[in-house]
Amino acid sequence: MQKGSMELLWSSSHISGGNAEYVEMMYETFLTDPNAVPEVWRSYFEQLPRVTEQVVRDIPHSPVREHFANLAKVKVRPSAAAASPVSDHERKQVRVIQLVSAYRQRGHQKASLDPLNLWKRPPVADLDLHYHQLSDADRDTVFQTGSLYIGKDQATLGEIHDALERTYCGTVGAEFMHIVNTEERQWIQQRMESVRSRPEYGSDVKRHLLERLTAAEGLEKSLGSKYPGTKRFGLEGGESLIPMMDAMIQRGGAYGNKEIVIGMAHRGRLNVLVNILGKNPGELFDEFEGKAQYQGSADVKYHQGFSSNVMTSGGEVHLALAFNPSHLEIVSPVVEGSVRARQDRRDDPIGDSVMPIVMHGDAAFAGQGVVMETFQMSQTRGYRTGGTVHIVINNQVGFTTSFQADARSTEYCTDVAKMVQAPIFHVNGDDPEAVLFVSQLAVDYRQEFKKDVVIDLICYRRRGHNEADEPSGTQPLMYAQIKNQKTTRELYAKALIEQGIVDKEEADNIETEYRAALDEGKHVVKSLVMEPNSGMFVDWRPFIGHDWQAPGDTTYDEKRLRELASTINTIPEGFSLQRQVSKIYEDRRKMAAGAMPINWGFAETLAYATLLDQDYSVRITGQDVGRGTFSHRHAVLHSQKDGHTYTPLKNLSEDQPRFTIHDSLLSEEAVLAFEYGYATTTPRTLVIWEAQFGDFANGAQVVIDQFISSGEYKWQRLCGLTMLLPHGYEGQGPEHSSARLERFMQLCAEHNMQVCVPSTPAQVYHMLRRQMIRPMRRPLIVMSPKSLLRHKDAVSTMEELANGSFQTVIDEVDNLDKSKVKRLVLCSGKVYYELLEKRREHEKNDIAIVRLEQLYPFPYDRLKEVIAGYPNLKKVVWCQEEPRNQGAWYNSRHRMLRVVHSFRPEKNLLLGYVGRDPSASPAAGYAALHMEQQTRFIHEALRIETN
């Protein structure tokens, strides 16, 4: 008996004192035969910490001992006996162990997994007795059972073979031998082999399974009769998902989970909303009938999210179903980000309090690369969530694409999960008890090892891709079978009637009662908490209803600012900095003392320090963010002696808010989606994703289009995510010049997000502070600089940081006589400094240069105010580095025209364009051509004669 496990048992009052001996005896029985103890105790024991001591079984024949160690991985006691000749029985003993290993490796290929029984799988030679030079004549021969959990040290070959068949070739097929961790493999073997993958459930559990299946089928029947032909992406054929989700939530609650975040695509979503999360059926019916009240543009029913609280044996649990567009798998990293944010809020680095469950379609799981990216994140420091339970609703077809030939190149749709050594449990959806078993097993594994686990729920779709689709045109054989296929609920009800657990009248009553509750618009989830504990989730009310004019004072006490500046430049004694980094910190100390002007990297770092000082958290991720792609940040310092790191922003004070900064894996789509999910869950955290180069955001366009730009208006999901996208034309070619500003500008409408191009350190300081200080939470897209990070003129003072604010428009900085200015050049970003240098060089004092620092929402009033200061203007031109068909011109000119035309209309003030010609490519590939283009349009903007 493992002492630690019994100590846990004895610590519970109801099993202490005189009951301890009884419980210990029961626990020992459970270790050898879980089915021999009552179900309630089996469930209790399964949630205890695992037994780490392998049962030692002595093998009397020394020549076999080495085979046991290598093939079965069991511990054997050393023997002093000399080696003896190997007998025929001993040879067969080794082959028996090989047989056991073969079933563990390949039993899933023989398992009965397809409810339609259409799979044609070749025989698996490894699972044949003759392959191992065994035969039916050996079935009565007794062999050592080795590491096989069969309840005894010795058994006949027939018993061993029968146990293996029932465990690995029934309606559960397990893939776990790819896991290199021996402890994990042995844990799975013990859990499956000890009950033959089929625990004995009591009558109450079976009735509950029937009730949940009835609910799943009942909702689909109701919707089908009320709204025939209307798209709903029904769950028919996969009804076992509902008892599966019910079991997982209850199991998670029993472990002490306080929140479960759920992601899924379309199929079965309405069923999960009503039968798992407790959405009122009446509200769903109103949505079908067009009676629902909505804000913004809203979204279709099968994209909607929801949240509620349910009661479990471990207490109240908050459920959150994420919103998801038709880009099916993109919800996966969004869920992970939301979970990580909730875990951080609960100070739970392990993942005990919040669990993610993500449901996938088989074709999408196999076909969409973001699945791989999300798996790759799962164990990294910045993105781990303590393991995710993945459920693949395997309809065996992708819209009209057959999996046998076209949907994938792998044997299973779940094979991608092997890259992180996740165990995969394939289960026949028409066996609800097998579904319940793997559901509990998956949650137990996740809680035990804090790693991802996958359930492949093999089922079918009864109605085709959607209810308006005719599937037999492309899958005639499949739908000929489905037409005659009894539903999972019908099959299970029949089985329970035959077992005498229910009679037909009781089964029919369950169906009738559910349908009546639906028709009356009642909640049908019995565990639903009608008055949920609001302390379990974040209160967003302080951030709702604020517009762009919401106050946000970004000034900061100068004395305290200088104190923080000193703190973040203090390096621990003996910490060995690299030479260039040491110079950067030496310069920053001078900046803090006022001996040098402040550069970009220092101003940005001070923005984070002041926010932390005001009790806001900060999270920054992306490729190379610790140092910064262009070596400007150096927020994470690396000792040159031993490689350990020091982060000054984590060491402002003992009780400071969380500062997180992590270099990400080389992913854009999954990482940006993760950060979106994080930002939608933590309104008091400045969440930043920085692209290595701005054009890398191309790889995350789905996230930008479907979540960042439109999430508030489709789903009323507020999000303060900040994207830093390095942007600037420095002759580095088409790939790393443009962050595709024009794409973000095209997405701007209804004040959905901010697009800024800051050009000074003070501007980035106040812009980042404004993002948190203002109570409004909307995405911030920043065209951040590259060469400006070290430009001699792109500097600020400590006073500008302490006493300034973010300026949406910056007027001319030189002391020009504004009455003599005839031409005004509007611009944004790096090109300003090139214009300024040439204007000064050629003394073009009748031309003023004005910077637009915020392109959206467009600063109409401020720009009017600036232009009004030039009474004798003849022309205004917009100058940009980007080609004419790119950049801000096409999506901002009507806004600029509106301002220009409002300025003394009788003067007929004109607005012109100056910049590169239209181009299919973002930038020139040769530095010489780049310079030629730049010189031309700079001269044109300033009316400089070209020789």
UniProtKB/TrEMBL annotation:
Catalytic activity: N(6)-[(R)-lipoyl]-L-lysyl-[protein] + 2-oxoglutarate + H(+) = N(6)-[(R)-S(8)-succinyldihydrolipoyl]-L-lysyl-[protein] + CO2
Pfam family, one: 2-oxogl_dehyd_N
EC number, as in UniProt: 1.2.4.2
GO cellular component: cytosol; oxoglutarate dehydrogenase complex
Enzyme class: oxidoreductase
Statement: the UniProt record of this protein carries the keyword Oxidoreductase: yes
Location of the Transketolase-like pyrimidine-binding domain: 598-791
GO biological process: glycolytic process; tricarboxylic acid cycle
Cofactor(s) needed for function: thiamine diphosphate
GO molecular function: oxoglutarate dehydrogenase (succinyl-transferring) activity; thiamine pyrophosphate binding
Database matches in CDD domains: TPP_E1_OGDC_like
Described function: E1 component of the 2-oxoglutarate dehydrogenase (OGDH) complex which catalyzes the decarboxylation of 2-oxoglutarate, the first step in the conversion of 2-oxoglutarate to succinyl-CoA and CO(2).
Family: Belongs to the alpha-ketoglutarate dehydrogenase family.
Assembly and oligomerization: Homodimer. Part of the 2-oxoglutarate dehydrogenase (OGDH) complex composed of E1 (2-oxoglutarate dehydrogenase), E2 (dihydrolipoamide succinyltransferase) and E3 (dihydrolipoamide dehydrogenase); the complex contains multiple copies of the three enzymatic components (E1, E2 and E3).
Protein name as annotated: 2-oxoglutarate dehydrogenase E1 component
Biological classification of the source: Bacteria, Pseudomonadati, Pseudomonadota, Gammaproteobacteria, Litorivivens
